[in-house]
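Let us work through a complete example step by step.
Step 1: write down the sequence.
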Amino acid sequence: MKASVFWRKVVADGSDFLDRIVSLLEEHHVRYCVIGGQGVNAYADPVVSLDLDIVVAVDQMPEVEAALTQEFKVERFEHSLNISASGSDLRLQIQTDPRYFDFVERAQTRDVLGMTLQVADVADVLQGKVWAASDPTRRASKRLKDIADIARIVEVYPELAHSLPEEIRQRIS
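Step 2: predict the structure and record it as tokens.
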């Protein structure tokens, strides 16, 4: 079974939500990149997740939000837009925290569970995970997953370990 078919089954994506999102981004020539757990999956052995986190070029955010609102349910939060569609358990989150905006410029084409997508550079994916793991407002279970994702990256790219805060470096060694 192809990775993309497996992932669609896991997220119960009967509405082709993921394909529709990717098509919308391509149709509008949106500069974006995958971050978060699926970003980690592009650089390390994949793990299953219902989430897809992306960053969109800041100058394209208003256009993207308007286009998404026409087709999907869009909820605005302090640092994200959460997009959903009936018929799919996939959770798409567009990060609006300004710290992530530069990631788009360094993105590269990578395989993410059988799909070819723009993915943040591995150092940027790692930095995003460090920010998430260090955020005391996140649930403890989420922060533990972030630590595991950091460990997955550093196992494949040990040269990036030097960029980690000492506290996190100790937790993964």
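Step 3: interpret the result. The chain has one domain: 3-172.
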